[in-house]
């Protein structure tokens, strides 16, 4: 096989040697635009897990790489006049030039040929090659030349950064957060050989402009940064290497291969340097592609397998990198607002991959300090005694909303059961909700409960519009209050255009085959093309719906609920006013986000007036429609701010389900960044929901200040005693009901 690797970075060099090692008969040439001793940057970082992959791929290269490493376990975080250290992280740095030299020499020994100082922007000169590897970096000439086939998507991020070196020998991976008159400056620094360290400076575009760096030369940048970080550098110099300020480009491609041309490394994808992943991804690409070729032999089949198999891992890393880079883009949101311990924890868990449990295993003293600080602040907020010896896990701290205090931060999400009889809750609801309260959750929220018969989603949906509904819900509330310390709430809603449909297991969102009732919405837009067309609401309709919500609110109080939640999300009636995808009204209730929010706020104000002042109100919102021209996270911040101003106590932050063609970017905790942003930008408590399944996730979200309560749905369907099991696994004693006292003498054996 004749192979041409365009690009002499880690991806191209590593793939070339792996391919040649696998079969010496392969004809492999690396073509690079620069000299062999000319590279951008200073050091690269690898984790211990990455090194294991290298050991399996080529032990000789692995040996040489590890011999050149500078290892460290600690991360030092300098912020607000303090230095917080977290241990046990297991990273290593090395010179990028040394890495390239190792890969090149190993390739030479195996028979790889090299052509340096050769530009390539067309595959025509290599028409006789069986495979052309486009490993020519983030500004890939080959990718750009054949963009119509690869379909690149490049998102240039707003922050500015510059890559510098220094003679200061950092003993740990070090973060500095330094403020001057221009703004907040972030430094990512790590040692890569005995005498040198990488020193990356990052800031917002606004601070960069105020500092006059938009036209700075490399020497200007060195002078500015040496003065700004004089204390941190302690007399050591900064070094330059094409050290110009730039913006990070997040690169994605719809396709990674076309004919016999394949993208690898930064040409195919990028991940922000804050998780040290660029070189790691590039070299793991090389391993994956070489393995695909060895398994398939046939180039087209190998490229298809590489794209399919490798893409999942890359996209997972890119999701983590995206959350990490957004944390650094918005560090001002946290710096000075979170206490140092929580700020440091937020930084360490910013990618959402590192959890409270991970850190507890690595550095129990650090996590204990975080937990103690969190418990102290939680006790103060809840106006309860402090328990800090030992501190409880964050999830088992109390939280106050008005006069309601939940005993812990775990919430059972409102989940439609489609089991009511003409809106009346029954024994199913008593057992369903009661068992989860006995199971230890701090707050249980009853399913979406409709304020009128015509406001139901399906014939099986619960309601709160008849006297018998109050009696039925009182049974549920009385059970929870009598036998558990949990609080209980109810979610009030009107289905709008998503009503008159089948039960979930009969076809979710599909219209009823018979017995339909008329629908109303902000505009006459059906959910599916074959769905019933709703009537655009008149002023009289609005008055009636508002009064229905007020009546249901009064009934909820009589039933004894501790909190109510209004449903402003997922495309239901009130949400249909907020989203521009479902609101095309020409009147004062359409157009701008302020106008679209007008009617939902009218309903909120009426409900707040009808609900006791001592009891809190939550509102669930969709923070993102995940569809073109829909609501955005910026809109969600506006909505939350208006709700806060009107007396909303907490926002339950969800997303999607407004239109059937939405495309959410699912993943662990994928909605938590929306709750995080709203909590800090608006200053209102938040609940986060979506793909939360472990107590490690819950503790991580809370300890980092990303939300105040964590809402779990499927986890509670699977295990009604999820909270109790989480307490057991963490060695935390959660009180049992008197009826279950005997369980204290029970020792579980084997896996659950």
Q: What do these coordinates show?
A:
The chain has 3 domains: 1-70 and 91-153 and 252-335, 3-Layer(bba) Sandwich (FAD/NAD(P)-binding domain); 158-247, D-Amino Acid Oxidase, Chain A, domain 2, CATH 3.30.9; 410-745, TIM Barrel. 38% of the residues lie in helices and 19% in strands. It is built from 26 helices and 30 strands. Helix 1 packs parallel to helix 4 (96-110) and helix 18 packs parallel to helix 21 (598-610). It is globular, with a radius of gyration of 29 Å. The relative contact order is 0.08.
Termini, distance in Å? 52 Å
Please indicate the percent range of residues in DSSP E strands (runs of 2 or more): 15-25%
Shape: globular
Count all strands and give the number: 30
What average pLDDT do the residues reach? 95
Total separate domains: 3
As a percent range, the share of helical residues equals: 25-40%
CATH T-level fold name of the largest domain: TIM Barrel
Which labels suit this protein?
TIM Barrel; 38% helix; alpha/beta; 752 residues; 3 domains; 26 helices; 7-stranded mixed beta sheet; 8-stranded parallel beta barrel; globular; 19% strand
């Amino acid at each position: 096989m004749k192979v041409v690797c365009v690009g002499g970075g880690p991806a191209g060099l590593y793939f070339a040697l792996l391919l040649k090692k696998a079969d010496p008969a392969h004809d492999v040439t690396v073509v690079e635009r620069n000299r062999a001793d000319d590279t951008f940057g200073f050091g690269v970082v690898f984790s211990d897990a990455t090194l294991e992959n290298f050991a399996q791929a080529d032990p000789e290269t692995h040996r040489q790489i590890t011999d050149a490493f500078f290892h460290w376990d600690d991360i030092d975080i300098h912020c607000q006049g303090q230095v917080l250290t977290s241990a046990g992280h297991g990273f290593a740095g090395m010179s990028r030039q040394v890495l390239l030299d190792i890969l090149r020499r190993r390739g030479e020994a195996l028979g790889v040929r090299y052509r340096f100082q050769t530009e390539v922007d067309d595959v025509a000169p290599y028409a006789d090659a069986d495979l052309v590897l486009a490993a020519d970096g983030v500004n890939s000439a080959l990718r750009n030349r054949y963009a119509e086939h690869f379909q690149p998507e490049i998102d240039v991020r707003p922050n500015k950064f510059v890559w510098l070196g220094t003679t200061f020998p950092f003993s740990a991976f070090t973060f500095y957060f330094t403020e001057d008159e221009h703004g907040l400056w972030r430094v990512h620094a790590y040692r890569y050989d005995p005498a040198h360290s990488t020193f990356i400076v990052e800031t917002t575009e606004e601070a960069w402009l105020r500092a006059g760096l938009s036209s700075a030369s490399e020497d200007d940048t060195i002078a500015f940064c040496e003065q700004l970080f004089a204390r941190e550098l302690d007399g050591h110099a900064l070094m330059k290497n094409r050290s110009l300020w730039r913006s990070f480009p997040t690169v994605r491609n719809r396709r990674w291969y076309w004919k016999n041309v394949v993208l690898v490394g930064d040409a195919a994808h990028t991940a922000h340097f804050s998780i040290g992943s660029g070189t790691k991804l590039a070299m793991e690409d090389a391993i994956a592609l070489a393995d695909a070729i060895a398994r398939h032999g046939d180039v087209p089949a190998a490229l298809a397998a590489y794209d399919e198999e490798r893409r999942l891992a890359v996209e997972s890393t890119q999701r983590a990198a995206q959350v990490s880079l957004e944390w650094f883009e918005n560090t001002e949101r946290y710096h000075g607002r979170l206490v140092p311990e929580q700020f440091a924890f937020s930084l360490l868990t910013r990618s959402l991959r590192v959890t409270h449990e991970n850190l507890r295993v690595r550095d129990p003293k650090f996590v204990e300090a975080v937990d103690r600080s969190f418990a102290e602040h939680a006790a103060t907020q809840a106006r309860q005694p402090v328990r800090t010896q030992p501190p409880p896990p964050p999830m088992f701290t109390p939280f106050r909303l008005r006069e309601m205090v939940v005993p812990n931060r775990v919430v059972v999400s409102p989940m439609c059961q489609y089991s009511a009889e003409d809106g009346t809750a029954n024994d199913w609801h008593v057992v369903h909700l009661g068992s989860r309260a006995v199971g230890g959750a701090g707050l249980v929220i009853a399913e979406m409960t409709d304020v009128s018969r015509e406001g139901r989603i399906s014939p099986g949906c619960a309601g709160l519009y008849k006297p018998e509904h109050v009696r039925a819900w009182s049974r549920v509330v009385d059970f929870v209050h009598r036998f558990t310390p949990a609080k209980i709430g109810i979610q009030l809603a009107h289905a709008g255009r998503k009503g008159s449909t089948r039960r979930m297991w009969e076809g979710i969102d599909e219209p009823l085959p018979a017995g339909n009732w008329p629908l109303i919405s902000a505009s006459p837009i059906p959910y599916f093309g074959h769905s019933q067309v709703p009537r655009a609401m008149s002023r009289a309709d609005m008055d009636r719906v508002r009064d229905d919500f007020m009546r249901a609110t009064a009934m909820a109080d009589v039933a004894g609920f501790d909190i109510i939640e209004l449903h402003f999300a997922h495309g239901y009636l009130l949400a249909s006013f907020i989203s521009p995808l479902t609101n095309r009204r020409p009147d004062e209730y359409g157009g701008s986000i302020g106008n679209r929010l007008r009617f939902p706020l009218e309903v909120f104000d009426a409900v707040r007036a009808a609900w006791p002042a001592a009891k809190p109100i939550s509102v669930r919102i969709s923070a993102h429609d995940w569809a073109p021209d829909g609501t955005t996270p910026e809109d969600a911040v506006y909505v939350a701010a208006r709700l806060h101003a009107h007396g909303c106590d907490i926002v339950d932050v969800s997303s999607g389900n407004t239109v059937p063609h939405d495309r959410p970017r699912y993943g662990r905790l994928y909605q938590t960044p929306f709750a995080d942003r709203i909590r800090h930008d608006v200053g209102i408590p938040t609940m986060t929901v979506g793909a939360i399944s472990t107590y490690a996730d819950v503790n991580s979200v809370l300890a980092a200040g990303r939300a105040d309560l964590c809402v779990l749905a499927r986890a509670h369907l699977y295990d009604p005693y999820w909270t109790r099991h989480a307490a057991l696994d963490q060695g935390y004693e959660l009180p049992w009901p008197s009826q279950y006292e005997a369980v204290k003498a029970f020792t579980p054996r084997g896996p659950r």
